[in-house]
């Protein structure tokens, strides 16, 4: 890679970071308002995930010191939003789905679900207040300002150059990572499939958020396949996370009918993931 191309790619990265920082500031102001919405928090999480994915996409050209300094800071900020997200998934998806699948005479499971929902809402409310306090702390906007200053050194005058070779090399690298982590999805451990999901997400963000900035267009069908794969792998992760949350919350173990419903759904998700992974293996990264 020439020095000119290297500098051009760094400048593109800096512009992407600035755009995401502006979006994060907007969502932070809404989250600090008297009545923030769940959608505000969702947008904050999505924007932060996309921003962190930029470190993966542009990693080969980023200075080591910059990578070492900023990856853990952004990871810590993202981790603070995790508990609320897990309660949301549990309350909006997994517990209602388990209830829908219960037999009409399964009163024990229904009573257990009633208590689980009540306690989950209380826990979600507590974690939401803790998260709002964390996001309102002065070190969050300070971190965004520090990052803005740090990437200013990467900017250069003039329009952005098209970088198709770099873009496609990153897509190829993420494809290899996903295929490696997604081996044998019907039997692989949930943690390894979670890492495969992260790779799929990073790859999709490359196509949706970073390809246009690099002057390249990705086919809609590939983006759609990656979204399907990410959703399927997400269900495999969510069943483990949901059961772990419930184990911490409840004194009584979940009835067998509920555990069975959770694992049956995860098994179906593994089959869908296997189908999508076969498609990815059969098609080169565009």
From TrEMBL:
- Pfam families attached here? CHAD (PF05235)
Which InterPro entries does this UniProt record tie to the protein? Answer: CHAD_dom, CHAD_dom_sf
| Protein name listed in UniProt | CHAD domain-containing protein
Q: What is the lineage of its organism?
A: Bacteria, Pseudomonadati, Pseudomonadota, Betaproteobacteria, Burkholderiales
Annotated CHAD domain ranges read 6-285
């Amino acid at each position: 890679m020439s020095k000119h191309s290297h500098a051009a790619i760094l400048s593109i990265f800096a512009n992407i970071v600035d755009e995401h920082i502006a979006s994060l500031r907007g969502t932070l102001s809404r989250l600090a308002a008297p009545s923030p919405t769940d959608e505000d928090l969702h947008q904050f999480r999505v924007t932060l995930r996309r921003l962190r994915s930029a470190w993966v996409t542009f990693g080969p050209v980023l200075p080591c010191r910059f990578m070492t300094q900023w990856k853990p800071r952004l990871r810590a900020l993202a981790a603070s939003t995790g508990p609320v997200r897990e309660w949301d998934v549990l309350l909006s998806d997994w517990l209602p789905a388990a209830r829908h699948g219960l037999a009409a005479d399964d009163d024990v499971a229904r009573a257990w679900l009633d208590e689980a929902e009540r306690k989950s809402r209380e826990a979600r409310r507590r974690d939401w207040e803790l998260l709002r306090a964390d996001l309102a702390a002065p070190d969050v906007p300070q971190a965004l300002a520090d990052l803005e200053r740090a990437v200013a050194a990467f900017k250069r005058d003039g329009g952005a150059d098209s970088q198709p070779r770099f873009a496609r090399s990153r897509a190829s690298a993420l494809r290899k990572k996903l295929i490696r982590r997604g081996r044998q999805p019907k039997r692989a451990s949930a943690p390894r499939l979670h890492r495969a999901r992260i790779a799929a997400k990073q790859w999709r963000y490359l196509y949706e958020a970073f390809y246009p900035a690099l002057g390249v267009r990705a086919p809609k069908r590939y983006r759609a396949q990656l979204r399907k794969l990410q959703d399927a792998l997400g269900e495999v992760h969510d069943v483990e996370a949901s059961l772990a949350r419930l184990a911490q919350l409840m004194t009584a173990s979940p009835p067998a009918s509920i555990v069975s419903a959770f694992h049956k759904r995860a098994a179906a998700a593994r089959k869908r993931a296997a189908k999508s992974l076969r498609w990815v293996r059969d098609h080169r990264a565009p």
